[in-house]
Amino acid sequence: MKNKTIKTRDSRYFPLSLIIMLALIVISASCSGKKDIRPEGAFNPEKTFNKANELIDKKEYEDARKLLLEVKNRDVTKKYAPLAQLKIAESYTREQEYDPSIEEYRNFLAMYPDHSYASYAQYQVAMNYFVQIESPDRGFGAASRALVEFEKLRVMFPRNPYKEAIELRIEKCRDTIAGYEFLVAEYYYKKGSYSSALRRLQTLLTKFPDYKKEPEVLYLLGLSHKKLGNKEMAIEYFKRLLEKYPNDKIIKDATKELSSLTK
Fold first, then answer.
1. Using CA of residue 108, residue 114, residue 118, residue 119, what is the dihedral sign?
2. Helices (H), 135-192
3. Long-range contacts of 55-60 (CB under 8 A, 24+ apart)
4. Distance of alpha carbon 153 from alpha carbon 105, whole angstroms
5. Among 101, 130, 175, 255, which is 20 to 30 Å from 233 by CA?
6. DSSP codes, 55-101
């Protein structure tokens, strides 16, 4: 029995069985391959957003970001789009990819400056820098940037809910920066660059008067002035140390230095 044929517009003839076979191939191909991570049915921003959250919890960050980006672009209600932007930033933080996380939080602030989560986004910008602080000799850059962002948070959002945490973290930032300045001053002193050491130490005292290692700063100031032949200034700093911190462990050395200068 001959195959039935269908005539096309260009007058060519194809067997019906061949057309059916091609259709089956197309259907089979469409069903193969990696399963689509998007929820089935019409686009639902809430459902898609929740699915992305599940993927984040499973640490499938790349797939989660694809869904979140779709929410950003397709959420006509604009209810979930801002939240999707925040989640994109958060996903990078979870991966400890701090630079892209900061960039995404900044994008949120640029797009939604008046959103109820704007203060949270600014807080997270600061925290992404803050968590990179390791020690005074390695965390100076992160501490400096975190301090700027925490200060910005206080100015931009004076009623933010993070006030207590901010004060503690600002204190740590300042202490880290001051610690770095002291290490540099100490390096200059050991190298014999006493004028450079003095400049660092004097700046440290001016900017960070509450630095917890102030006794050591005063002692090194006295030593630096002594090395430069500034006897009176050296005596002044050693006396200041003795008067302000009479019980500090460095007092014994300071007393010896002062005695050698006042003989």
1. positive
2. 140-156, 163-191
3. 56/87, 56/90, 56/91, 56/94, 59/94
4. 13
5. 175
6. HHHTT-HHHHHHHHHHHHHH-TT-SSHHHHHHHHHHHHHHTT-HHHH
**In terms of Cα–Cα distance, which of 169, 204, 170 is closest to 184?**
204
Helices 61-74, 45-57: crossing angle, 10 deg rounding: 160
CA 42/CA 46 separation, integer angstroms: 12
Whole-angstrom distance, CA of residue 135 vs CA of residue 126:
17
CA nearest neighbour of 147 among 115, 174, 181, 122: 174
Model pTM?
A: 0.77
Rounded Cα distance, 92 and 101, in Å: 5
